[in-house]
């Protein structure tokens, strides 16, 4: 086991939390949202009518999968980044001709193991490898687990959690990880404020629960004493570049202990817990091209503009 759930991961979590909560504005890296509870909450968010990205991508995916299958050919090893519940991969595996392997990479270790245990019996001819890793750092696949031809898969809106500079870094690292390959990546350009507020601010209170769980996780794993009842969740739209930010806002001034430090909050001060950049196709293609990914095909959902990009690295 590696990642924040491992004992060495806890020291990194404490370092990142201290650094983020000592800055102005206060931040916490979004990757810590993803413990087992966070992953479970996200699965419920995906099923909620307000959360449009999952529905729009699922509507687009069958057509995309059959065209990708024709382009990449038989015997592919698929490597998914941030695989979560490993639901969308079923559409891809069903469309591909005799896929050889599926490597599911996620930071949420226990949830990842359970998702692969559910998936594997339905695909007895596909070698399944769960890889607990943090894709904000360089990732090496287990030797021999993925053989060419290789198809990378990064669905959902996860690329949006990166700033343009960080997205470039991720796309460059993915090229190193995958080697010569195709890469199917989702990107969401939606700018409709009402739709974004519903998806990221409401979703039946599940978004608030996902972000507030980060405080519970910090208290449990790092021994801090933050009062979860003193925070509420807000989704805020921001520009340059256009994005949705998740904030946990303090209802009143308070001080809490974290490691050896005291973290002070003014009344109304917030912690930014995640960011979702909305990447238009042209901008995203340019970011990928700068990292050596050649555009092959682009599919766009009529309703939301949600895009699936297929790239190739020779
Ligand atoms: C928004 S969910 C998307 C899940 C799924 N791919 C989908 O499209 O429905 C993000 C997923 O990426 C994982 N994740 C987030 N940050 C990560 C990181 N730095 N390294 C590896 N996995 C990460 C989370 O655990 C979660 O399963």
UniProtKB/TrEMBL annotation:
Domain Histidine-specific methyltransferase SAM-dependent per the UniProt entry, residue ranges: 15-312
A single GO molecular function term of this UniProt record: methyltransferase activity
Coiled coil feature spans: none
Pfam families: Methyltransf_33
Keyword Transferase: yes
Gene Ontology biological process: methylation
UniProt keyword annotations, A-Z: Methyltransferase, Transferase
UniProt cross-references to PANTHER family, sorted A to Z: ERGOTHIONEINE BIOSYNTHESIS PROTEIN 1
Protein name: Histidine-specific methyltransferase SAM-dependent domain-containing protein
